[in-house]
Automatic annotation (TrEMBL):
The chain crosses the membrane at residues 50-72. This is DUF2484 family protein. Residues 80-105 are annotated as: Disordered. InterPro entries: DUF2484. It holds the Pfam family DUF2484. PROSITE patterns: PROKAR_LIPOPROTEIN.
Amino acid sequence: MATQPRYAGLALALVVLWLVLACLVAQLPARWQLRATRALILAGVPALGWLTLLWGPGIGVAGLGMGLLILLGRPTARRRRRAPPVGPGQGAGTPPFAGGPEGHS
């Protein structure tokens, strides 16, 4: 079994630091989030390449998946908070089972 290079732990620590920073970007004000996300992408590409070089393609793909999950998972969380659109005939006071245009008998 081959031993890991001397800097393998440093590459793994760098990727873990990147993941922590990516989680903290959501705490920034909205006007800074896009810049911080771009900076994370610019810093993450070489870190992911270094991780893949030292730890192999399996760990590299797992790191890519975790990074994508964190970066792309934030916008979906914001979309879920919106209220669903109200269809025609289902206003605020009209229950969905109420009679249509012909009225009640």
